[in-house]
Amino acid sequence: MVPGPVVHAAEPVPLLAFGARVAGDDARTRVVVQFDRKPDFSIHYVANPVRVVVDLPETAFGLKAESLEPRGLFEAIRYGGMGAGSSRLVLSAKGPVAVTNAEVIEEEGGKSYRLVIDAEKVDQPRFDALLGDQQWTGSVVAAKTDRPTIAPAEKGGAFVIAIDAGHGGIDTGAIGGATKTEEKHVTLAFAQELVATLSRESGIEAFLTRDKDVFLSLPQRVQIARNKGANLFISIHADTLRQKDIRGATVYTISDKASDHLAADLAQRENLSDEIAGVPLQSEPAEVADILIDLTRRETQAFSVNMARTVVSSFEGQINLINNPHRHAGFRVLQAPDVPSILLELGFMSNKDDEKLLLDPEWRKKVSGLLAVAIKRYRDQAVANGG
Fold first, then answer.
1. How far apart, in whole angstroms, are the C-alpha atoms of residue 244 and residue 15?
2. Of 107, 141, 175, which residue is a domain's last?
3. Which listed residue, of 51, 161, 293, 365, carries a Cα 20 to 30 Å from 152's Cα?
4. How distant, in Å, are the alpha carbons of 187, 267, 364 from that of 358?
């Protein structure tokens, strides 16, 4: 008997959100999103600041930016992927709110469906009661991050590097001033190029924390690196500034005190990633709460600073650097107590010259090569010093 062809299960087709509108005032606001198929959804509340979180199956958002322009009770509205076949709509409120009605309405005999969400202003005690009554921690769409047992690396084994493409999914990051390109796409394109470059190097094993447009929380990024026994963690970013004339790369390390206002402001913005995605604010695990306390963490920080200086040295005279290119601040994504970590700001999407370079594949290849040189130099020093 001749076996028949192997049939593989088709990937689920994402929902399509193709239209939306927001209407209302500071007392009541309605949000409507149109889908091509009936969406399952769930609604939750998050405090500090107040957000209404709408979890959806995986959804392609074919929406015009102005269709979900915030108004009424809401000061910001964001949407995007959350990984694991799910997506999310986050409504950031100006104050305590309650959803009074949420329903899906069939249109045109099932040709499309409307998700209608009505919210009203409430007092703080009522909002607190809503928070207390819900059984939700935001973990329903989080990737599994339990740390497996890691076998000790054999002497002479691969030097493992985690390359973290900043932002992703619902968290778009900065928006380019000229092209409106989202930072999450810039960071992923560079991270992929860097991993490809490093993979050609003997004795180096590089991997991506995310390999597609999905959201990862800041603690998840740290834990992924630790789970895989990373010897080094590099987070890639391309921010924007109000001062559009500022350009060039910057390398950041963690510190409990920022080196300057620019570093402090950048860290504050980057640390809002989880808030943007509607992840509840939780206290940090004890093991990462006070990163600069004991000797082990101080040693890790020393290795991080050494890596930052090595990168700056490799870049000097080759690509544009900001003034004082090694800076430091309290970046949550750099807080692994046992993995030397840096955040590399490739340039600024707010500067037209930087933005042009960030979108240039040849420039990405050049910078990846320079970074690989720095990483190999750092690896040799770290191995010689027992790092």
1. 38
2. 141
3. 293
4. 9, 21, 7
pLDDT digits (tens, 9 = 90+) for 129-147: 999 899 876 653 333 333 3
Q: What is the pLDDT of residues 201-230, one digit of tens each?
A: 999 999 999 999 999 999 999 999 999 999
Phi first, then psi: give them for residue 253, nearest 5 degrees: -125, 165
Q: Are residues 238 and 371 in the same domain?
A: yes
Give the predicted TM-score (pTM) of the model: 0.85
Check if the beta carbon of residue 262 is closer than 8 Å to that of residue 329.
no
Token pair 């990024």 is at which residue?
A: 221
Distance CA 89, CA 347 (A): 29
Specify whether the CB–CB gap between 260 and 330 falls below 8 A: no
The two tokens of residue 362 are 């040849």
Structural domains counted in the chain:
2
Q: How far is CA 55 from CA 21, 134, 324, 364, in A?
A: 18, 14, 43, 35
Structure tokens at 158: 């691969």
272 contacts: CB under 8 Å, gap ≥ 6: none
